[in-house]
Fold these 2 entries.
Entry 1:
Amino acid sequence: MGEGNPSFWPHKDLIDITTLDRDEIALVLETAGRFSEINERPVKKVPILKGKSVVLFFAEPSTRTKTSFDVAGKRLSADTFSLATSGSSLTKGESLKDTALTLESMRPDAIVIRHSRSGAAQFLASRLDCSVINAGDGRHAHPTQALLDAFALSRVWESFEDKNVLIVGDIAHSRVARSDVVLLTKLGARVRLCGPRTLLPSSLESWPVEVHSRLDKACQGVDAIICLRLQLERQAAGLFPDVREYARTYGLGPRHLAEADPGVRVLHPGPMNRGVEIDNELADSGQSLILDQVYAGVCVRMAVLFLLLTRPNQGDGHGRR
Amino acid sequence: MAGVEMLVRSVLWGGRPHDLVVSGGKIVELSPNPVATGSEVELVDGSGLLLLPSMIDAHVHLREPGQEYKEDIASGLGAAAAGGIGRVLAMANTMPVNDQASVTRFMLSQAARSHPNGPFLHPVGALTKGLAGKELAPLMELAEAGCLAFSNDGRPVGDNALFLRALEYASDTGLPVIDHCEDPDLARGGAMNEGRISSLLGLTGIPVTAEALQVARDILLAEYLDLHVHLAHVSCRQAVELIAWAKGRGVRVTAETCPHYLLWDETLVGDYNTRAKVNPPLRTWDDVLAVRQALAEGILDILVTDHAPHADHEKEQTFDDAPFGISGLDTALSLVLGLVKNGFLDMETVMDRFAWRPADIFGLPANRFRPGDPADFFLFDPDLDWKVDERTMRSKGKNTPCLGTELQGRVTRHFLAGKEIFRLQAEDMK
Ligand SMILES: [Zn+2]
């Protein structure tokens, strides 16, 4: 590894899938594919990013995404630092602008940010010279999740053309769904959405998707199904009556898979509410790609860190704009 | 001519040069013919300038008491003077809230101290105690202390029964109620217009229906009680259509809109631009066109700025965390002038909506350039370019989407009762 030539990688930051074109997405997936080999070695470490520092700034808790970035960085020999705890002054009371300036003073080469506010990653990116990687901002975008979903699928599919992908659940509040729709569409797949009207975005007419209200119909002929995590606090907000009714109507079970393509794959960004979004046995079945997604996450995040931190004309990250 | 104090020479009125004669703080004559001068006259050269009546802004937030770092009464009135605005109605969402006479009197005394000759401040009293929407504020006391209207602006009353009683009780004071039209439950948590862009940006939307529902409620209550309700900052087609219907039935509603709803749509929020975060939110282009037409036709009665100054550090946050509001006093007329130059409005309509109609609605004096009218007027250079920035804006709030851009048209001199309250200086330009 290390021979990869990302000489045309033009982006300082990764905020959103919309800013990537099809070739750039292909490059990320291809790079992730080459890095996956490192994860199979007895010594899972290469010196590609030696001397680079990556700050993991998680203002919203997420063990799995943070760990995935941490592992990815360390496998490429980057130094990773965490600023995570909710009690820290970096998240309590201090404005995001001051947090950004504080982070920049630490002279990182990249900041990975998870934040509860839509637009928070872009806010940092427009104010900092270092690379900013969005690890999920509010309900806006989660680009590495979409890339890892595509990577996991790319290992079982030749091509995305003419594939039908269904996303089920709380689309309205899901940054994963937003990024998945953009990415899968760019790769040539057709996307369907299914969920109760209260959990669908209010204006879907401009989205390149088919919308279904009944799960069995939505599953007809699909090649992959992405189940989204249900946030139980949405019930308190009156968006659905109770978990049992949700599970009966929108929980994915074996009978739905009977409607789908025989080779259908099932994905879930985790953590799962087993028995709510997805049937317990289904989650562990041969059709499930859920553990492949976790593996894909490390590969994709290695690729993203590599492409951003080794791009040409990269400043030293120290000068303020 | 005896007793003449000021003669404004060759100033444009109705597209033709006029001479304006002022004496004793009042208009003596506005003549299309050159007026002979005495020796004791202050001569003002008005050539190339428009003569316009001093405007009334019936919806501003001045932040004093409580948040003087955003704006204080002195800086807010300074911005009004520079914008051609001679009277402002200041909303009650100060800290403390203007729900008692002591706050009203404090505001009036601060205004009198910093701007004894105007612009004049007219406090708007809170409709409910603490703006909490639970109990009526002491409206009689507020009226006696000098409030000119009542409003829960910023925190609309969702309880229909309480709002009905507030209208009834306020009617005994003879002062109008101004309602911020937004159903608080439908708008909860919203940061921008609900639609295509909010769904792409992952922001909670405020649907047009939240506004229209409250407008419909107010219309029905105004008709039921046969009382006047003034509808604040109308932003959308649905609301305009409801108001047109109500006026057709003779319901006693009046309504206002702001320059930003005449000019900009939700696309300005684009990349989470917090300077375009305003409540009600910027809507779609179709709504912009509807609001423009309604203002031209008089379905919307008046123009206001909804001047809502904020400090830079407050706007420099994520979109959800940034406060709502656009600073509007400095730029209002320049923005509207763009619509005049494009032929969407004529200048006389603008003056009717920004000076004469608000005077009628809120019972204030106005200058219609008839002999004996108060000499409240300003001179306006419609061709003067200026850059909107930290130095050229008088308001402490630099939170406008046009910050850093060039606008055309600037007030050069502003008089109230014949006394000069603003004169453009070189440093106001660059
Ligand atoms: Zn308001």
Note: The longest strand of chain B covers residues 377-387.
Entry 2:
Amino acid sequence: MAIVTCSDKACTINPLKMSQPIGGAFAFLGLRGAMPLLHGSQGCTSFGLTLFVRHFKEAVPMQTTAMSEVSTVLGGYENVEQAVLNIYKRVKPEIIGINSTGVTETKGDDVEAFIRLIRQNHPHLEKFPLVYVSTPDFKEAFQDGWEKTVARLVEVLVDPVDPAAPRDCSRVNVLPGCHLTPGDLGELRTILEDFGLRPSILPDISGSLDGHIPDEFTPTTIGGIGVDEIATMGQAVWTIAIGAQMRRAAEAMQAKTGTPFRLFERLCGLVPSDEFMTFLSEISGKPVPAKYRRQRGQLADAMLDAHFHIGGRKLAIGAEPDLLFDISSMLHEMGAEVTAAVTTTASPVLERVKAQEVVIGDLEDLEELAKARDCNLLICHSHGRQAAARLDIPFYRAGFPMFDRLGAAHQISVSYRGTRELIFDLANLIIADREDNHQPIPATCRSPAPVCVSFRRS
Amino acid sequence: MTSLSATIQNVFNEPNCAKNANKSEAARKKGCTKQLQPGGAAGGCAFDGAKIALQPFTDVAHLVHGPIACEGNSWDNRGSASSGSDLWRRSFTTDMHEIDVVFGGEKRLYKAIKEIIAKYDPPAIFVYQTCVPAMIGDDINAVCKIASAKFGKPVIPVNSPGFVGSKNLGSKLAGEALLEYVIGTQEPDCTTPYDINLIGEFNLSGELWQIKPLLDEIGIRILSCISGDGKYREVACSHRARAAMMVCSKAMINVASKMRERYGIPFFEGSFYGIQDASDALRKIARMLIERGASPQLMERTEAAVAREEAKAWAAIARFKPRFAGKKVLLITGGVKSWSVVAALQEAGLEIVGTSVKKSTSEDKERIQKLMGHDAHMIEDLTPREMYKMLKEAKADIMLSGGKSQFVALKAATPWLDINQERCHAYMGYVGIVNLMEEIDKALYNPIWDQLRRPAPWDDAEINWQAKALAQVDVSAAGGEPTLLGAERAPPAKRTRSSKTVELSLIEDRIPAHGSSVFGAMALDTHTSAAGKQASENNLPAQPMSALQAAE
């Protein structure tokens, strides 16, 4: 049971957090033919865009209402209208997703009203999907932007169903948190299909951001779930939500369509994967395929091989709540000790992190804690690399952004196979670090500090 | 805000900016910023520009006053290098919350300054204003003034909220902050007749260090580099330099021209890109210093160093000439550095089929005209679709551009090289130009291109993904859909005088604006891929190390 504390510094140093609007825009990127639009000044979009491009190494569609000083003060109706018309005309999107930013929220632009007015003034847009989500920069974080946007997509785009109508027994909805990579979603799709289920993944960044060369030309997103498919999600027999952040969207789905949901707070690790497989077996009425029985064995073997290296490690981790909970729980179950944990925003899972304390703070907090508590493994997104270098401890990149390594989109950590890969990557990192930096020399043997950290259970 | 708008007016009155000088007074008042198109723009903002200009000062704390978006989304995204302090790589922001928006963020800002001084004790703090605090009326000038007095340390306000304009304007506003609060506030320990300032050089990938040893050798001291590998004390003392060089960029011309007005420091605009330009720049620096009292022997030393370095560089480049014969380059730089890169490429025998002049001045354009002759293909602006067409029709063998347009080339299976600020190789000076040639060579002759241009075995050679994507491009072009963003509102873009002009607006900016319209770029029709194949087969004899040949 972790105590959640909040950093009380006036100055954030080396932010771990990214802003809410780009988390929202990220969700829109998982829709087919989408154009995310940030209602704010140019920089709001350009910074987020650069971040996505550096992470995915792909062209990313994203637009701005290009608010100037004057339009910000006077209100941005004209800018929103012009942006929507321009985008509609030029790139023929299937949906435009609008997120507000700090500037337009400070002014108090009522974008819902703007949209009604736009539909009124331009009848051809009457039925066109325009989804708006309020996401001020000065509140909450990236994950919250995703959470609100997915919930809003459900509320706006899913057609209500008659509770008495028969459901399609093979259809399931998947609502993934923003901590899952395109690779994770690909893995989940395969698993569900192997159980004979047909998943609708909302949002599906594996269609749009998994680094492939598409054969169709589109000036919007190049894949993802279509608006038409979202509309029919109410027919599914179950909704699977992954990450506590998705509770809101799953509840919205249930409220609107009556589809029951099961929330998996985490999918990394043996026990959560077992629960997941059991559930799929139950809802599909099929036994767990041989492939996964074998993968389970492989994971068990990987855990045996890796526990020598991971056991006893003092972990410092900085990540958004769901990712933090996911990875740190798995490593705790591998015998590591979650010694320093820093996150960006409040969440119900934080209390259940297997650590003394979880700090809502920045990377300086993480670095100081890691130093004070002698951590010897750091997990964070790419911004953590400076801290790791100063601390001189092995560094594993997880989360967004990962701009200084390739293949971020294809990293996987879900289910037996993903867990196995993550465990191997981490153990190899630790082995390499020991070979490179901790070879015994006479001096280290005489030093009072033990070279090997003993195994402790918290 | 009055002081900010006065500063902006002031910046636009820059008589040394060729673009401004040609405008009427009324037009000048409107400034350089073109009307931004909602739904059709995606460049950086003024805050971005200010941060770019000042961030390379390495030993100061850069504190961003605003909500998390401004700094949390953007920090650690540039490759300047430091020879000493790494404080500049840390990120400081007030991370304003809702409560600060309601009650004002000035107290939080003051506390943040206090915390930074307690923890890091930097020689100075730069405080950047962003949109939200500007809107709610946080007076950062006042907070900085009070903090300065209280802590006895320079705290410099940089007034450049994003919504006042473009990146370029932001860089100028950053320059104004230096002029008003920093330059001339300290005195150097000693001065020599050999002291120069470099202005607008950011030491990306450590490029400055390709030139600095040469200057050291000749006996020229860089009193201050604004702002690459810069230190606060150096820029504060920079008013004692004898001459200045403005490096390739007009973004900070206000700094150069006001230092000339105030302190009588003459400056010239030069470039270290390309052999000829580097030599010219070194000679000009020497000449200016001699005019202002340095020993005439300086020129002899300069000439000796230039002769030696040129000979070495030419010898190194000579080996690329046979490999580059007949190779064509499309150069998309945003225009600022076009002419200097053009000269460099021509030195290696590459043919330039087009160069962008979006941000170039008429002076720049004349220079390009002079270098490339009358069939200079100056590109005002190019949509990704048009860019793709040029590549597809094999009008170019390689594209050099900034990172944002890379996917146009890469997904069209065409070699591409990053020559913009995110690049990881240094291309400056006599050493850098050889590096550039090596990188071009590696890109052109990589064995992947032939493999990638082959259709998948199950695809009909006539209808592979490339052909399909291409067909879509043609359809939408024939359908008369405007390929130009904002065609309905924006005034028609000016044509340059050159014989074969490709039209239109923003290139770098157009990429994200069109989003993945660049994927249209992906296609290569079978004709081109055949041509490409043929071309590369022709090249095989010149590439003994080719993996393809090895395989055969």
Note: The radius of gyration of chain A is 23 Å.
